[in-house]
Specification:
123 residues; 4 helices
Length: 123
């Protein structure tokens, strides 16, 4: 059974993960991160699907969730690099900046899950 502090870190990581997923979905659907009606926006939906699929594979356990969020941050960074260098991209600076913020949030979630896993293993 996890300690209360490990549970707190786990819930904080989960909250960050869900908040980032919601904000990224909302920005993609409402305004489009890559521009209005751009087909490039579908890639950002794929990042959220990646986070959900990796969390499913990790079975919700803290060490696996940390690796899942790390993988999601990598997918986010790779997508930003691909879209920013594509010749048809309308707003490469906006894509890089927003993806940087999302990457930082995915990495924060990974750090919280990792801390939870370390504390749980120590108990």
């Amino acid at each position: 059974m996890p300690t209360p502090s490990a549970r707190t870190y786990y819930l904080a990581g989960l909250a960050v993960m869900l908040a980032v997923s919601f904000v990224q979905l909302w920005m993609t659907v409402v305004g489009g991160i890559a521009g209005e009606d751009s087909p490039q926006n579908q890639g950002f939906l794929g990042v959220v699907v990646t986070a959900a699929a990796c969390a499913f594979v990790a079975k919700g356990r803290a060490p696996g969730m940390a690796r899942a969020m790390l993988a999601t941050a990598g997918v986010q960074a790779l997508l930003a690099a691909m879209l920013a260098t594509a010749p048809i991209t309308q707003h490469p600076v906006r894509i890089v900046m927003l993806s940087g913020v999302f990457c930082a949030a995915w990495l924060a979630s990974a750090a919280l899950f990792r801390r939870s896993g370390v504390m749980e293993a120590a108990a």
